[in-house]
Design a protein that fits this description.
The chain has twelve helices and seven strands. The protein binds S-adenosylmethionine.
Length: 295
Amino acid sequence: MSKPQARSPRQVVAPKASAEAAVLQELRPGQSVELLKELHILTREGKLNQDSRRKLKQVYHLFQFIEPLLQDFSQNDHAPTLADHGAGKSYLGFILYDLYFKALGRGHIYGIEWRAELVEKSRLLAQRLGFERMSFLNLSVADSTDAAELPERIDIVTALHACDTATDDAIAFGLQKKARAMVLVPCCQAEVAACLRQGKALQLTRTPLAELWRHPLHTRELGSQITNVLRCLHLEASGYQVTVTELVGWEHSMKNELIIARYTGQKKRSAAERLRAILQEFGLEQGLGVRFGVE
Ligand SMILES: C[S@@+](CC[C@H](N)C(=O)[O-])C[C@H]1O[C@@H](n2cnc3c(N)ncnc32)[C@H](O)[C@@H]1O
């Protein structure tokens, strides 16, 4: 089957549109209104649910980054595979399927989520909508790496606000599955902050830089910043080209960092060296070396 064409949003409302109409305007030809209702993005009357508006904006925005990757990985009749980690209600997976996989007629989306009731709901919804090439696995992200239900290779790994270290587990999954791309929007991550907290007294005697994380709020913020920097270096050291950008405007989400990694095969030695140096400088190598690929 041929590749779905890039489509422009359907103009369904007048230019002086309300915020609600502006999002509805973005509905694409063939997009399932039934799905949007099932996801409670649209009310039964077809109006936009304000609480879900933020999620829809995030997912649409993410789709702009994922669609070109999917197009690339669908070439030569390849059936693209995508694993979405910490899938929750699987907004992202369902909308990706609806906007891309449905028309493509091949490929598969796997949603990984450890809350059984969400997995069950997603399975039922996929069945109801006839989205046959979607599977939902009731697994932790870490356990999914070796799960028999998943293929050996996965083209794209996504993780949208997967909590705490689930993003790191998703990266480990992507590395193991030789993912061609990873699209990550990290959530809060407490592990690095905990290590910073633990070594704080010692580091304060050693370096004025420890002022950066003396106050608890700064420990948390710096921990989060360092985590994402280490993730990027880890990916670069593993052969990925990394772009870091904003997902949507900060008014829509505080957890807004979007990391896009594409496999090039060029493992950057300098990234591995810098990763090691940062771990050392912040006193993190004991607790976190293995997590970020440093033995
Ligand atoms: C904040 S929600 C985001 C859900 C979805 N990605 C979205 O953006 O709508 C995080 C989800 O990840 C799941 N989760 C967190 N850690 C996980 C882990 N280690 N393994 C599997 N699921 C996890 C939670 O149960 C929750 O449903």
